Amino acid sequence: MNHDLILCGWRVCSTLPLPELMPWMGDDRPVDIDIRVADIPAPTDVPILVLPHSRLWRNGDFLLELDGVGRFWVAQGRQVLVEPAPDCPEAELRAFILGSVLGVLCHQRGYLPIHASAVRIDEVAVLIAGISGAGKSTLAAALGARGHALLSDDVAAIDPKNGQLLPAYPQRKLTPDVLNVLQMSHEGLLTHRVGQVKFRVPAFADFSTAPIAPAAVFVLNVSPIGPFGAPERLSSAKSMALLDNMIYRRAVGQHIQPKPVLFSSIAKLAQLAPVYTLPRRKGAPLSELDTFAAQVEACVRGLKSHG
Amino acid sequence: MNGFYWIASYPKSGNTWVRLFLEALLAGTLDINRLKRAGGHAAVRAEFDRLLDIPSSDLTDDEITNARPCLYQIEANAATRPMFRKAHDAWHLTPAGKPLFPPELTLGAVYLVRDPRDVTVSLAHHLAQDIDQAITRMNDPTAVMEHAKLRMQSQLPQRLLTWQQHVQSWLNAPIPVLLVKYEDLLADPITRFSEIADFLKLTVTPEQIAAAVQTVQFDRLHDLEAINGFAEKPPNAKQFFRRGIAGGWQDTLSTAQIEQIETHHAEMMRELGYLSLG
């Protein structure tokens, strides 16, 4: 059976169920991305990039491979072939389809994937970027508790034509301590990976798939030593450098997209959205989370009132 | 291609002291929160993510450990001089059966060891736990440092084994190892730090060694932390540089606690001279 779905505004046709995605409600346009369980081709030429889980060929074809999970072939920004490992739960496959595979699809389609969660605050998009473990999803969820809908979790796709954010899919990944503080239950939820402590939390409420202009990028900077002041706005040179570091699947992306193209996409984003570093004390108690979220909210609203 | 010198130890055994010494020696100055020459940590999550180009948050502990040898290969391919890396992992094979620290990329290891009775006290403070929890942890063959029990850490998970197994794993590793006792470093820092510099093939003068030893005197590190904080202090610990002495356990541990530690680790404690052979 084929599932007709929407991901980053693209029409996805998948033989694998992807319950994290919303159904396609748009027009009758051709399918943008085809996902199916099928044998993966064996290219005869040598890959140009070989990493423990990833291989990339000169024409941009990409293979992701995880023992015990499966292999994922991503080609031309429109085809995803999946070879599941024996007995691998489907949810494990989805963790990679909606992560690394999505990132590579963005690169192949010429979009800019930023390692960021995104929320909608008063009709603009706010990106929360940072390295793994910085607390992107946690802050996005705290903003969610203050009434700001989720746009993306972990991968924020930017349209290079106009710098707009394409909302990805309505799911958060949260740890039990954060769920607890936000008075949400993890009963019945799947973990992100088998044995991990992060849960997949649906966030369908107020999720809108319409492209939206980003108004600010906050880059979380977690450190045990201060200063821990207000968000600090960066110069345009620093903004560009930091955004460049925050490109999702950056090494692969730099081989797929010409550097000037990535540069111009980053410039487009930085032009629309001022970039701030957001200092956060390592080990800060979750009881301070709402105050932290309120600080971000105030900063965004201050931006708007100053035009 | 260049390789690694691992500065390896069970936690709380003088690893940071040696790294700060290397920093003072090679950089000529010391900002404890901005090390330029002492090399990084072998298990930094952000480095793993950046160089292997995959979010480690999408991977299981086993998948991460299996990929770590490739991380070191990539770093070695790009290096223009020998690299130092702090390591708390035991020297062990990954779940896929490969050495976590590939011998072919290894120039050597400085292995620091400290009386496990003192390690226990220091570890309890470091983890903000009680002494008995630290004793249990040091005797747990499944102990993993920075394992994400509740939330993800900035370091990757590191397998420790028991204290005794940790020491054995490095001393038996098929690589050149310089064993350095924390107590000897305290008693005769100039001689011992000079041995470390020799082992690492550093071209330095005795005067430089003496100056670096002076710079990393315990009291000075303690004061620097009091003024500026220390980035490597765990959030729940009161301070990182606490006492820096040998034998502090004698006024802290109960007879029963001492007995437990000496029983758990008897063999290695005797071998290292922490217990008499009788």
Structural account:
The complex is a heterodimer of chains A (307) and B (278). Chain A has 307 residues and is α+β, with helices and mostly antiparallel strands. Chain A has 2 domains: 3-108, no CATH class; 112-305, Rossmann fold. Chain A has helices at residues 90-108, 136-145, 176-181, 236-245, 250-256, 259-272, 289-305; strands at 3-7, 10-14, 22-23, 33-37, 49-50, 54-56, 62-66, 70-75, 79-84, 112-121, 124-129, 150-152, 155-158, 165-166, 171-174, 199-202, 214-223, 232-233, 275-281. In chain A, strands 3-1-2-4-9-8-7-6-5 form a 9-stranded mixed beta sheet, covered by helices on one side. In chain A, strand 5 and strand 6 (54-56) form a beta hairpin. In chain A, helix 2 crosses helix 7 and helix 4 crosses helix 6 (259-272). Chain A is globular, with a radius of gyration of 19 Å. In chain A, 46% of the residues are buried. With 278 residues, chain B is an alpha/beta fold. Chain B has a domain at 4-114 and 163-241: P-loop containing nucleotide triphosphate hydrolases (Rossmann fold, 3-Layer(aba) Sandwich). In chain B, 44% of the residues lie in helices and 11% in strands. Chain B is built from 12 helices and 7 strands. Chain B has a 5-stranded parallel beta sheet with strand order 2-3-1-4-7, with helices on both faces. A two-stranded antiparallel sheet of chain B has the order 5-6. In chain B, helix 2 (45-52) packs across helix 3. Chain B starts with a strand and ends in a 7-residue tail after the last helix. The relative contact order of chain B is 0.18. The A-B interface holds A 51-54, 66-67, 95-96, 99-100, 115, 131-133, 154, 173, 175-178, 192-198, 222-226, 249-252, 281-283 and B 33, 45-46, 49-61, 63, 66-67, 70, 96, 148-154, 228-236.
Detail the topology: elements first, then pairings.
The complex is a heterodimer of chains A (about 300) and B (about 280).
Chain A (H helix, E strand, L loop, with lengths): L2 E5 L2 E5 L7 E2 L9 E5 L11 E2 L3 E3 L5 E5 L3 E6 L3 E6 L5 H19 L3 E10 L2 E6 L6 H10 L4 E3 L2 E4 L6 E2 L4 E4 L1 H6 L17 E4 L11 E10 L8 E2 L2 H10 L4 H7 L2 H14 L2 E7 L7 H17 L2
Parallel strand pairs in A: 2-4, 4-9, 11-17, 17-19
Antiparallel strand pairs in A: 1-2, 1-3, 5-6, 6-7, 7-8, 8-9, 10-11, 10-12, 10-13, 13-14, 15-16, 18-19
Helix pairs in contact in A: 2-7, 4-6
Chain B lengths: L3 E6 L5 H13 L12 E2 L3 H8 L8 H18 L4 E5 L18 E8 L2 H11 L4 H8 L5 E2 L12 E2 L3 H9 L5 E5 H6 L1 H11 L6 H10 L2 H11 L26 H10 L1 H6 L7
Parallel strand pairs in B: 1-3, 1-4, 2-3, 4-7
Antiparallel strand pairs in B: 5-6
Helix pairs in contact in B: 1-9, 2-3, 4-5, 8-9
